[in-house]
Amino acid sequence: MRKEDKSIIIEQIAKTLGEYSAIYLTETTGLNAEKTSNLRRACNAAGIKLLVVKNTLLHKAMEASETDYSGLYPALKGSTSLMLSNTGNAPAKLIKDFCKKDDKLPALKGAFVEECPYLGADQLDVLASIKSKNELIGDIIGLLQSPAKNVISALQSSGNKLHGILETLSNKE
Q1: 85 vs 21: CA distance, rounded Å
Q2: What integer is the mean pLDDT of 147-152?
């Protein structure tokens, strides 16, 4: 490959990395064609972009990027597939589900989620439990609505009691 071609590919990879907030490095070499096809379909359905890249090109693209990906450099060994998503836990959940059905592949080598690097397959459960931005917003809205709902229900129930007492007193006269 010519040097000009490599620089174009590095620029494209760096641009692609900048478009996503969650980057997962996985090992998919042991998957046969059918399982690889199933993995690609599952990624497309979950809104995850799956790319196979050379480690040296990915390393140079990470260095060229404005974000500090240096925590992922040790994971750039062997064959590497990139899973890119804007939902931090989506690739981890997909990997866990896919591993339940099949083998131990795809195996997590490392991830960069919410500006934090995670290395090793043992981090998969931690990554799967990370809540996305939308989930956190939903939790906060639920917490904010809870006290208001309690006040409204207390006012409604006490209003019904007061109405019943007044009605009983008016009937006695």
Answers
A1: 6
A2: 72
108 and 147 inside one domain: no
Q: What is the pLDDT of residues 99-142, one digit of tens each?
A: 887 667 788 999 999 888 999 989 998 999 888 777 888 888 88
Judged by DSSP in three states, 88 sits in coil
Residue 80 contacts residue 25 (beta carbons within 8 Å) = yes
Number of domains into which the chain is organized: 2
**How many whole angstroms separate alpha carbon 124 and alpha carbon 95?**
8
Structure tokens at 30: 């042991």
94 in Cβ contact with 42 (< 8 Å)? yes
The strands making up 22-27's β-sheet, listed across from edge to edge, are 49-53, 80-85, 22-27, 107-113, 116-119
Nearest to 7 by CA among 60, 51, 66, 55: 60
Chain-centre distance for alpha carbon 21: 9
- Whether residue 121 sits in one domain with residue 72: yes
User: What φ, ψ does residue 53 adopt, rounded to 5°?
Assistant: -135, 160
Q: What is the pTM of this model?
A: 0.77
